[in-house]
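Fold these two proteins, one after the other.
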Amino acid sequence: MTSLRLLVTFCSSLGHLRDPPHYSNARISGTLGPVPSPKKPNVLLVMTDQQRADMTRATGFSLDTMPCVDALGRAGTVFRSGYTAAPLCVPARVSMLTGRFPTAHRVRQNSTGEHAVFDRDMIDVLREHGYRLGFAGKPHIHRPLEDFDAARGPYWHERGPERSAADESFDSWLADLDHGVATEPTPFGLEQQLPHRIVTGAIEVIDELTATQPDDPFFCWVSFPEPHNPYQVPSPYFEMFGEDEVPERTAGPEARDAKGPMFRWLGDLFESKRPGFDDQWRRYRSNYFGMLRLIDDQIERLLAHLGDRAEDTLIVFVADHGDFVGEYGLQRKGAGMPEVLMRIPMQISGPGVQAGQALDAPVSLVDVLPTICELVGAPIPDGVQGRSLAPLLRGEPAPAVEFDSIYAELGYGGVPYREDEHPDLHFSYEGPTLDELNTVTMSGGTRMVRAGRHKLTLDVEGTVELFDLESDPVELTDLSGQPELAGVRAELMELLGRWMIRVADDLPRGVYVPKTVPHNWRWAPTEQLSMEETP
């Protein structure tokens, strides 16, 4: 029996909750190696919102926050260096669906999704190849829910659709938190929590898709609004990771000076709106970990419902971007491109995927679309900048020149605001309300490249920063001026330049047609590419 078939009844046997809501009662086991599928696989895409990559037991974290997701990773391939294309929701999600970086699809703010530029996205590709399309959860994308065959949503961070009286009461309580940190257990049950309601909707969507046309493969995107703020959980999750168990953070508020004006400005904004907000950092982390476990239990519930269909289902688990989770004395996101915001969980399990792999090759959200294209037998659309990971999923080696670095973007353009400027931030400043993604924090532009242990950023004003991620994981010591690292800086600057040329929009609009290569591996030597015909 395959790993995934047994996984659907795995997680509850771990005994990972105090008085937990169990949904299944067996343990994972299975074989290594790709499992062939006689037909196009179903695709289940599970996305969390604002989840850091380094806070599960499988990543070496001290607390066991997501045992079911960790087990799902062991049944497939985990990418230990997954990166977002941009550390905010809509640009990242549009990048995943289109396989294009924000400067190419032109969505660089959360408010401009409808302006996305692309040829064909994931929805188009899968529909063209016979898939029934489903969605449940938070969209925050460029497509309306009407483009899916079955959908439940939209859900946001403080409300869901078609609410019962109990749901409406919970949503009102959630809105009153104003994206803050709850200091007591949520006074509503698990059934009112958005992840539970979303999984209920996802189960309905999958049943609807398979009931009407059972022989067609289905795609279902399950999109959780959490562990994004507001940070709250009910019992027993509130008590599950006590404040006394919360590991120390690597950098507190004092680190904002080392990180520069944008970090100081954002910290001052929080302090002006919510004086003493950082005093709650342990509770904030505790709630965040509890929400990860709550989501994990709902993923377990969804897999249990999937049943034998899991054997023919590709399961992709990703997040759109990370969260400070207290680093630098900050919450949420909004300043710079530190690893805690840029690195995301990313793993794929299912037919044709080598089990038991944990790969260090840096990959990106933009790689999801071309990977799914290859796994379902579809050509990669024009203008896609991501790389197919399908050969890596099969256990084939990754060409170093193609997979030894990764790139990402931040900023909507214009001239960056100075630390002492106070422009209109596009929302009311009555009470504690604030938006960390605002006119100041998103102004200008920054680009990053990571290769090996080093990471380099360059902003529109020419400021270069260089960090050694092994010795300085929270990037407090800029090494760009160190003479002994001049060679490293030069190499990464050249690499960043190559990436910026590579991700310039090459969507065909005239008589000239860009040359393509297998898997969209543009830098790999010809002899390392598959001998199959270029799409």
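Now the second one:
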Amino acid sequence: MAIDRIKKITLLCPRAASQRLIRTLHELGVMEVLDVFDHHAGANEALHRAETATEECDKKLQKLRLVLNLIDTLAPERKSFAAGLAPVPLLVTPEELDKVIAHCDLDAHYREAEDLDTVYRRTERAVGEISAQLEELHGFEGLPFALKDLHALKRVKILVGEVSDERLSGFQTNMPGDSPIVWERVNSAGENHSRRGDKVKLAVAFLQEEESEARTALTSIGFTEWSLPRFSGTVQEHIQELEGDKAELQARLQETIEKTAVLAMNRRAFRILEAFWESQKNLALARGKGAHGKWVGLLTGYVREVDLPGLQSVLAEEYENVMVVASDPGPEETVPVSLTLSRFVRPVQMLVNLFGLPLYTTFDPSPFIFFPFLLFFGICFSDVAYGSMLILLSAYLMYKTRPYEGVYNFARLLLYGGISTVIFGFLLGGWFGDLYMPQYLGENNLILRVMRVTQVIDPMQKPIAVLIIALGIGMLNQFYGIALKMYGAWIRKDIAAVLCDGLLWLVILPGFVILVSKMFAPVPTPAFTAGLFLFAGGAIGLVLTQGRGASGLVNRFTTGLISLYGIVGSYGLTAFIGDTMSYCRLLALALTTSIVALSFNMIAALLKPIPVAGPVLFIAALIVAHLFNFAICLLGAFVHSMRLIFVEFFGRFYTGGAKPFRPLGFDSPAAILKRN
């Protein structure tokens, strides 16, 4: 249950066997191939880089992605509830992979998909253009004459537009008798009036020679002119033609969608092919990392120590003249990291992966954050009913995703979180908030009796006590993080860091806590004296040692003194205070879950007295409200628990950033190949 030991190996083989050798490594999936010229000094002088090309793979992937994009757009896959919550890759057997490669005619499917894509895009664009034309014609439907006749007029100018009804009425009242303009209201098809909101649609006519005067009058009343389209026939006739064309195009779109749905029946095969060609491209790239001379080929890479005997055995059986040279990686090398955990702890590895894998020379923090994370999660969620719901949901996800390790482990982590939530729900008395109260479920109901037996403390009634407990958990977790820092230094055989950057802080911080506690509560004199000695002894030790890397006595003393504050050095009193106070969120999240739940209970109770429908509305309101609260509080508990791990805990001891161990093989996010 630790970081796997890695061996660096170099493979020498006859040049003629080098292609077959790398295919064997691809099938075994145990070796991460490195660039020979980056890891063997002098290789450039004696060897040549192996030739490789990825053009074929790139062409296949380009075709597959066009096909998949088309069917995902026009015939999206209907996913189950579990797949919708947590998308999973395909699980493929070697037999199915061979069958798909042999029988799926990618070129024919690509040509079909390309034609469908072209038709769909062209037709969709045409539908959009017609819709835009119909939008432009809106408002002109009521014109009873052909528009070409309006544009052909020589002496008269006709404008169509809209104006405010109020301003038109005022203008009509005050219009002089010799006004150069006349107008008529225009009714749209299907309307019995010409209004559009407070606007009135008008057709305005005036003589060409009086255009300037007419436009001035129209501008004074805020007339908005619409540009008249140019075509023969009436507007209504043209609209009918356009709508007919649009209907035909929409039928063509539907036909294209139906043909795409038929093509989508091969969706699984396309995704398997995509994964296959991605792996083939990786194989080609790995081949290019090798080197060869006139007679020999050379490959180098990393292998897990546990896989090395099996690799040597296979190579010895299948190849006569392959030499395997294994050694430990050098201290200056960036070694990839592979983690092997017990089945029980494996789900928490997801959290470590989110933050970054540990460096090869350190230790895996997964076992050490397992119980702190569940502790924080359980306190934040702390409701028996919500925890039970989470257990059921997690069990369902585990059942649906058992073959897919990553998603399955995430579901198991939620299952553990649900168990922790139930435990703290019993201790803190959360059952859908306060649904056990007599006004909801009656006097002396079963849940109320159980709650009275199992509840240890009520955060609603005693928030200060729960706050003190949360701060105590925070302080203990800080001490735990410092202890893990000492453990990491011990692994590196850095005894000075164990004593100076770890042990001295475990001396000064308890003393600091005792001294600060004196400000808020009475502290027995012996305890206060002990705290004073601890603080003084730790402070002196830190001042003398935290500046040990500086030059000169004055610089060392100054650095050590400043380190107590936390600006420099491995830790600091201010960092301890800030990190500890951050654990107040445990109380805040626990109260949030309870307060929101009991608020929903009160709202639902208001519906209960309604005649006949009251009980049904009461139950329906409870279901909807608590499902909402369950989802929101689940997210909050998970995020804030991760934050307490990543920020307030990992910051004490953990350095991530290692690259994962990625052996050459069928490696794709789209599909997983079941191996014997």
